[in-house]
Design goal:
With about 600 residues, the chain is an alpha+beta fold. It is about 30% helix and about 25% strand.
């Protein structure tokens, strides 16, 4: 969406959109059975055959989701009520003919998943992701849209959304892209607001929370959100120009929700089963940090291959290691800068991502760009056949996060005054503020501009176009962080699960490629019997046996596979698992560099 188009069309919304032709009405009489009734009216039709669709994708997700499967009791008539001829070229499309210039579409939507991709309807709320809810006509993607939500007054429901309010629960969008990108939370929620200044403009940050807790909990949580908002603005130097002057957090922290977060242009969905009183105050706040950062990075700093978003096919991008991964790097860093978590906790938490990324054999097969290409297969995508992701895939969230960390510390070591924040500002001013989509080559060119050709070429050639590992020991040492590994802990490379019904210990994941277990021929589904003659039936017995051994020892394992007994020899290796520890006695120079990295800006 071009900036001028957005500004002009939103002005049209604010004036009422009297010429809007695509109109929706949704009601929730049967919410207790997860149903909504939807009526859509499309007028001024000038084509003989109208292609009506349900989306197969959702903004912020990259895999296919067949939303048409939840639509039934469909009727399509003209303006007089005459039923029209309908053909089905595919599972998600209805071709309508014989109309009189208007078609009226009525259907029931079943919805019972409260997250960032799907919709959920029950007597606690109507949580609506637009692509999962409303049919649309692709040919009319530039038409304005109006929608009325017939809310349940008996349940004290209110509507919260980034859609433009026109009064009496009527809302508008300038076009299909904006409409599809605008989730809706209808519930008896609570709201907190704060006005923030952006040079000569004031924006309102709204926090909408549907939960079962207290108002005091909301106040405490909102104070944390305000700190996050402030620190993320500091990274980019300014807020985005939020359409209609608002940004809205739409949070559902309720038992029937599913844990998720999903960014949108001027809002975000935040869902969790954890209430603020039951651990959510700490565990949910990271998603807030991540999704608000997306208001800059991915919503406006936009990969060229995601623009415009495709609602009919999977969206594949080369740059998710940056769009999602660098956002993930800042997720925890912002919490640290905001004082929500301590420096010690932040540094300790880096080890988990480090171990996952750099101990994975998947780097032999795919670099960060190719990991990004895997998104349609992994981003909440479903398949029934087993896959070998543990050996072939590293999440672009985690991989990119580690690369963001490496680039940040490398910049700080390269030259005094350089750091990732200023590089992100440069990306923002060049591609985000102007809403000009970028390529990976563009990111490399900007890094050359910010540093020099040698530095930028070295980073991209080694770590983006290839899968080499940065020297973290040196990078961490420059800010007083140590990498620690226990040389006495043996490593086997298998993941075990206790089958309580049969009192057996079985391998529950495909063994890691080239690990001791892999070389010994062990694989998913194998059931351990003995190690060196000692019976192994649970985790405690396995740990007790392994305590007797050190890296380099050979152990004899008997196991069952498909009810047959086998024996193999496994040589234990040194553990690849590290810990990251913050030095408590850094030099003044190192402490200054660390504080410039981790303290509030």
């Amino acid at each position: 969406m071009k900036v001028l188009q957005v500004t002009f069309l939103i002005l049209g919304i604010q004036l009422g959109f009297s010429q809007a032709k695509n109109q929706y009405l949704i009601s929730f009489e049967n919410a207790k059975h997860h149903e909504a009734k939807i009526r859509a009216t499309f007028s001024n039709l000038d084509s003989e055959v109208i292609a009506l669709r349900m989306s197969r994708t959702s903004p912020g997700r990259y895999a296919l989701h067949e939303f048409a499967k939840n639509v039934y009791d469909l009727t399509i008539t003209d303006s007089t009520g005459k039923e029209l001829s309908v053909t089905r070229p595919n599972p998600h499309e209805w071709n309508v003919s014989g109309h009189d210039g208007t078609i009226i579409v009525s259907y029931i939507l079943f919805a019972d998943r409260g997250d960032g991709t799907y919709s959920q309807i029950d007597e606690t709320h109507a949580h609506l992701n637009i692509p999962a809810t409303f049919m649309y006509i692709p040919a009319f993607k530039e038409r304005a849209i109006s929608v009325k939500f017939d809310v349940r007054k008996d349940l004290n429901w209110k509507v919260a959304t980034q859609l433009i309010a026109n009064g009496n629960n009527r809302f508008s969008a300038p076009n299909l892209q904006y409409f599809m990108d605008s989730p809706v939370e209808i519930s008896n929620h609570t709201i907190r607001k704060v006005d923030v200044l952006n040079e000569d403009k004031t924006y309102t940050i709204r926090f909408v929370l549907h939960h079962n807790g207290s108002e005091k909990e909301v106040d405490t949580y909102f104070e944390k959100i305000k700190k996050i908002v402030e620190q993320e603005k500091a990274v980019f130097g300014e807020y985005p120009d939020f359409d209609n002057g608002e940004y809205t957090f739409l949070a559902c922290y309720i038992p029937n929700a599913s844990r998720d977060g999903m960014e949108h242009r001027n809002s975000t969905i935040l869902t969790s089963t954890k209430s603020l009183a039951d651990g959510g105050m700490e565990s949910n706040i990271g998603t807030v940090s991540h999704e608000f950062f997306h208001a800059w990075n991915v919503e406006r700093i936009r990969p060229q291959d995601l623009e415009p978003f495709n609602f009919e096919n999977a969206n594949m991008s080369e740059a998710l290691w940056f769009a999602e991964g660098f956002t993930s790097y800042y997720t925890g860093l912002i919490l640290c800068r905001a004082g929500i978590i301590s420096q010690e906790k932040y540094i300790k938490g880096l080890a988990g991502t480090y171990n996952y990324v750099w101990n994975s054999p998947a780097r032999k097969f795919f670099n960060p760009i190719e990991m990004s290409y895997q998104a349609p297969f992994v981003d909440a995508a479903k398949s029934v056949d087993p896959v070998n992701r543990g050996n072939t895939f590293i999440s672009y969230y985690s991989y990119g996060s580690m690369l963001g960390l490496a680039l940040d510390l490398s910049l700080r070591n390269h030259k005094e005054g350089l750091h990732l924040d200023d590089y992100m500002k440069l990306v923002w001013n060049t591609y985000g503020k102007t809403e000009k989509p970028y390529t990976v080559k563009d990111l490399q060119h900007l890094l050359e501009t910010y540093t020099d050709a040698s530095f930028a070429n070295d980073f991209f050639q080694k770590y983006i176009y290839n899968s080499q590992m940065p020297n973290y020991e040196s990078l961490f040492a420059s800010v007083g962080v140590s990498i620690v590994k226990d040389p006495t802990t043996p490593y086997h490379g298998a993941s075990f699960k206790h089958d309580k019904d049969n009192n057996e210990l079985l391998i529950d994941k495909y063994t890691q490629k080239d690990s001791p277990a892999y070389k010994a021929g062990l694989d998913k589904g194998d059931v351990l019997s003995t190690i060196n003659g000692d019976t192994i039936a649970n985790d405690d017995q396995l740990k007790a046996v392994l305590k007797k051994h050190k890296p380099g020892d050979k152990i004899t394992i008997t196991y069952k596979r498909l009810e047959k007994k086998y024996k193999t020899e496994l040589q234990l290796a040194n553990t690849p698992i590290i810990e990251t520890i913050l030095s408590q006695e850094p030099t003044n120079k190192i402490l200054k560099k660390r504080n410039n990295w981790l303290k509030a800006h």
